[in-house]
Amino acid sequence: AAMRSRAEVDATLQTAKLNPAELLPAVHCLSFGPQAGSGECCLLQLEPGLCAELEAGHSLIIRGEKDEHAVLCSKDKTYDMKIADTSNMLLFVPGCKTPEELNADPASCNIIHSQVAGFSNNYWELRRCRPKLKKLRKLLMEDPYDGPDSQKDQTSTFSKYTTEDLLSLIQASEEEILHQLQVIDACKIEGYWRILDFDYEMKLLNHVTQLIDSESWPLSKVPLCACLEELGSLEPREMIEHILVSYGRKYVDAGEVFFEMREDKICRAIAQMLLQNAVKFNLSEFEEVWQQSVPEGMTTRLDQLQGLALVDKSSRPETIFLLKVEDLPEDNQERFNSLFGIREKWTEVDITPYIQDLCAEKQTVGALLTKYARSSMLNGVKVYNSRRPIS
Question: Three-state SS for 37?
Fold first, then answer.
């Protein structure tokens, strides 16, 4: 392309009826470089925090398998990626100087010849989203761990997963994945993340609670060393410690490690064990059996079962049945479809534990209900039902 002279630039300004006095003296003359049309470039719009992470030398990683919608992850957050079209052509000009830079440099040359290296009419837009963690539990549940003597474990054909495997398969940031592994009480066995088989977990918990009972230890002060000594001959010591970590809070007193057992979590696990063998359970009978089944000194309360079991107050007598929030779909609309398939009308108190985890940052349960359900009054109580017919 021929280089423009100042005279040509001034003539163009005159034709365009622009007053040179209102413009900066420097002029950018653009020409397209040989590679400009190859479409090699993608633009990504970043919020300041993510930009700072890249500038500090950290990585942003795009995660997802072929059939999944791509997400972008920083060390601790997950973002949905959407293509945003723009009506303006966006040009990439290497070494381009902005008006501020030109203003700050009075010696800037009169005419700057720049080559356009590429162009685009869309860019990737990021929106903070919930990490897609349901798959994590699903993968680990393919092959739950049921103890060191299990024949099944020796012959299992299922894949086992290291932290690296999970980072490549789960659409969430590393911190979110590691936090979720804690939430679902996964443990590392021979370098692989595993979830304990529920019956095996209950067997281990039972060993620990029976020992607490026989030694008359307070539930708030269970000594790690004594547990490992007493139970180490029955089960691997790391499994005993894993159960104490899962069902207790660890602390150190006078140099010795103790656990304060978590009453709510233990009561909840025992309720699950009782409920998983029955389709429905008479509520008052269940409450009686449940209280008899928990360790001495613990008190059962129905609010310990939020997101695990549901009471049916409309049946006579009232019943209770297992409904685990982790078994429900991850997608918002599918979750509501599933819940309205189980029960036509829900009170806010009943439905909250089953949709709480869908709330995005700063979103409330009320806002979710407004979007996906319609409300009405039933015997003076506000209830919610589906906005669409449930097939």
Answer: helix
